[in-house]
């Protein structure tokens, strides 16, 4: 049987972190679960909340490919263990692992897709690369922009999206969901063409 896609939304666990910019990946997975009427439950083989779903719909309204959507239960900087645990359990190759995460170097509200490459100082990605033994997984990068003035980037990512940006944040989450579905149903190049030309 073909391996499912593994879609992991990065963030830190617990209500204290729930609204942080750093948790935008986890927010996208929560929205994927809501749209699929799925409940994220603690997985037996990995420290993660996970659910098995269909990702999007294919031609003629046929259910899209099988997917496992997940949020690590660990802190961001040790996300690799849960990701590699799920990948092993479901026999998912690295090229079918999709990591959804915040990105300082992309303008707020922009979505960028790539496979492989560096981690850009993102500790969650660094942990995943080490645990998977490769950087060749897919990334859905959600732009949060750089902090204003002299604010420390660590403080910036670990603070909530401003209330005034509520609509923009909801749009970014919705775009993240659509980008994940495009990636798994259309492939990287077609999905990049759509998202990078916006």
From TrEMBL:
One cellular component (GO) term of this entry: cytoplasm
Predominant localisation class: cytoplasm
Active-site residues, Swiss-Prot/TrEMBL: 22 (proton acceptor)
Family: Belongs to the PTH family.
Function of the molecule: Hydrolyzes ribosome-free peptidyl-tRNAs (with 1 or more amino acids incorporated), which drop off the ribosome during protein synthesis, or as a result of ribosome stalling. Catalyzes the release of premature peptidyl moieties from peptidyl-tRNA molecules trapped in stalled 50S ribosomal subunits, and thus maintains levels of free tRNAs and 50S ribosomes.
Protein name: Peptidyl-tRNA hydrolase
GO biological-process terms attached to the record: protein quality control for misfolded or incompletely synthesized proteins; rescue of stalled ribosome
Site (Discriminates between blocked and unblocked aminoacyl-tRNA): 12
């Amino acid at each position: 049987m073909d391996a499912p896609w593994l879609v992991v939304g990065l963030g830190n666990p617990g209500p204290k972190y729930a609204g942080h910019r750093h948790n935008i990946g986890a927010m996208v997975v929560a929205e994927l679960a809501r749209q699929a009427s799925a409940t994220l439950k603690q997985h037996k083989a990995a420290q993660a909340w996970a659910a098995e779903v269909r990702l999007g719909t294919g031609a003629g309204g046929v259910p899209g490919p099988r997917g496992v959507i997940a949020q690590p239960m660990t802190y961001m900087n040790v996300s690799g263990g849960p990701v590699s645990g799920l990948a092993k359990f479901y026999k998912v190759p690295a090229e079918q692992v999709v990591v959804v995460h915040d990105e300082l170097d992309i303008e707020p509200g922009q979505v960028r897709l790539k496979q492989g490459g560096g981690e850009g100082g993102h500790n969650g990605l660094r942990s995943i690369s080490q645990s998977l033994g490769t950087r060749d997984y897919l990334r859905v990068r959600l732009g949060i922009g750089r902090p204003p003035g002299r604010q420390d980037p660590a403080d910036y990512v670990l603070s909530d999206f401003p209330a005034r940006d509520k609509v923009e944040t909801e749009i970014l989450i919705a775009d993240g969901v659509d980008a994940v579905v495009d990636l798994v149903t259309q492939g990287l190049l077609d999905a990049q063409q759509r998202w990078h030309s916006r």
